[in-house]
Amino acid sequence: MMNVLWTRRIGYRAAIVLLVLMAALLFVVFAFFNPRRPLIYKIADNYRGWVVVRYDDPSCTPLEHENIFLVITIPSSGIGCTSSPLQEGWRITLYEYVSGGKVTRRIPQSGWGHGGEIWAGFSVPYKHSESFFVGTEQELKKSWSSSPK
Fold first, then answer.
1. Number of neighbouring beta carbons within 10 Å of residue 137
2. Are 69 and 4 members of one domain?
């Protein structure tokens, strides 16, 4: 009986310590990294090249929502737009090819030499836009002369 009570006390203490550590970690993430809602770019199937997304454009629709994700649709032109503002800060970002409203495959992200297909992402806050490249490393290297200015 004594061993059971001792084990429960240790378990409760460990659980409390774990919860306090998790709360501290969440505080640090929110305080220093300014996280935003996760984002999915839904890109027209098999699109290759530079993508440009314009923000704060009143002629465009607001960002869509899919579960917890914000959604930016990129048509076959490679140019997406939204009336929503550009939000800086850390976030989880996914990229997917879509056709007929259905996901055909996720587009991998990775470092150089590891088979990723999303590259050279940058935002230009004063122009309310962001850009990135979809394709292989070799395609990216050939595309620099046509990158968005």
1. 15
2. no
Rounded CA-CA distance 81/38 in Å is 18
Nearest Cα neighbor of 66 from 93, 39, 94, 92 is 39
Same domain for 45 and 27: no
pLDDT tens, 27-52? 665 555 555 789 999 999 999 999 99
27 & 86 share domain: no
Give the separation between CA 84 and CA 55, rounded to whole angstroms. 6
Range of the domain at 21: 1-33
Reported as a single tens digit per residue, the pLDDT across 56-80 is 999 999 999 999 999 999 999 999 9
Burial group, residue 48, by CB count within 10 angstroms (0-12, 13-18, 19+): middle
